[in-house]
Design goal:
With 375 residues, the protein is α/β, with parallel strands linked by helices. It contains eleven helices and 15 strands.
Length: 375
């Protein structure tokens, strides 16, 4: 795909739509590190939060209208970090105005919505990127290198665990199907579906299940609210087209798995020669084991700690936090270099198709065969 040429030769001018914690934690620090980018505007439904961000982020332009951001000729690109049900409308509006788009996951409430977003961006010839953060963890980068270089042998199995110890109070909009689509499956497990496909290729068949254990009918302050409609546990078995197999489990209700707020993550590829494990709370270390031995920690080599050319200093900051800034580096790099971003909306769609199939499989009580992936 060819992408549109930026209208200015200066920094990429970025507007953030959704000024909540994710933007403040991931996207704004990433933009601040990148000399090729400049944060120029923010949009949110809360005027109070906007005023706070105007001062904290040093902005001149803030607005509650995403349409205003999308139509502004002084903005080249947008980052969408709003509730799931709003993503499609905002992304399509941005694309129609020629804005490059990075959007949080899940891209939409279902694969049909995501396909509309992808097609709008392709028609407008703008860069489109799905915020699959964990692809950028150094240990994941190194695991991918070992796998693709043949160091693990022929891959046979993928295993993913993502366990969080979260409060059982209300998730707000996140616990209602018409606003979120699904729970843990769309919020956390979809990340692991994405990097499994990136590592091992397309999935052929899926069998999955979801469950809801926490009623979440009280807010953190004790007020009553409608109970949760979405899953807080999800699991799936997948058969890859390559012949490899995969298992995934995710939950927000694993007591004792706080790990300084980062939770437990274990993503493993087992091949004919070796096994390698990525853990999010120690993203600069990989576990590696060969036949007859044990898994042993090895430091990720320097060249995999940051993207090429990035000004981020690899050993500064909390390791499990700072790699998230590399997401924005890739987005800006794709715009500047006039190329596709990785992961794109196509990657977001392929993962959404799998996540939708998990719900379909559970409803039917049977395996679901997946269509050919899009590119």
């Amino acid at each position: 795909m060819s992408v549109s040429i930026r209208p200015t030769s200066g920094p990429v001018r970025v507007g953030i739509i959704g000024a909540g914690a994710v933007s403040d934690y991931h996207h704004v620090p990433g933009l601040r590190l990148d000399p090729r980018a400049r944060l120029v505007a923010a949009c949110d439904s809360s005027p109070e939060l906007l005023e706070k961000r105007r001062q904290e982020w040093g902005l001149e332009k803030v607005t509650t209208s995403f349409e205003e951001i999308c139509a502004d000729p002084g903005i080249d690109a947008v980052v969408i970090a709003t509730p799931n049900f709003t993503h499609k409308e905002i992304a399509i509006a941005a694309a129609k105005h020629g804005k490059h788009v990075m959007c949080e996951k899940p891209l939409g409430l279902n694969a049909g919505e995501v396909a509309e977003m992808l097609h709008a961006c392709q028609a407008a010839k703008v860069v489109h990127m799905t915020a699959f953060t964990y692809r950028f963890a150094p240990a994941m980068r190194y695991l991918r290198h070992l796998l693709k270089s043949g160091a693990l042998g022929t891959p046979r199995h993928f295993r993913s665990q993502r366990f969080l110890d979260l409060p059982e109070t209300s998730w707000g909009w996140r616990q209602y199907k018409h606003l979120a689509g699904a729970g843990d499956l769309f919020d956390m497990t979809i990340h692991r579906i994405d990097f499994a496909i990136d590592l091992l290729g397309p999935i052929d068949k899926i069998s999955g299940a979801v469950a809801t254990f926490a009623a979440r009918d009280k807010t953190a302050t004790g007020e009553s609210c409608p109970p949760s409609e979405v899953d807080d546990w999800s699991a799936l078995i997948g058969l890859f087209r390559s012949g490899a197999t995969g298992v995934w489990e995710g939950t927000t209700l694993s007591k004792g798995y706080k790990l300084n707020g980062f939770g437990h993550e274990w993503a493993e590829v087992t091949g004919t020669e070796a096994s390698a494990v990525y853990r999010m709370h120690e993203p600069n270390t990989l576990l590696l084991g060969k036949y007859g031995g044990d898994l042993e920690p090895i430091p990720v080599p320097l060249e995999f700690l940051t993207p090429p050319g990035s000004p981020r200093k690899p050993h500064e900051g909390v390791a499990a936090t700072v790699f998230r800034y590399d997401l924005v580096w890739e987005f800006i790099s794709a715009i500047v270099e006039q190329r596709n971003a990785v992961p794109s909306f196509a990657d977001g769609l392929n993962s959404q198709v799998v996540a939708d199939a998990v719900l379909d499989s559970f409803d039917k009580g049977s395996w679901v065969t997946l269509p050919d992936p899009v590119s």
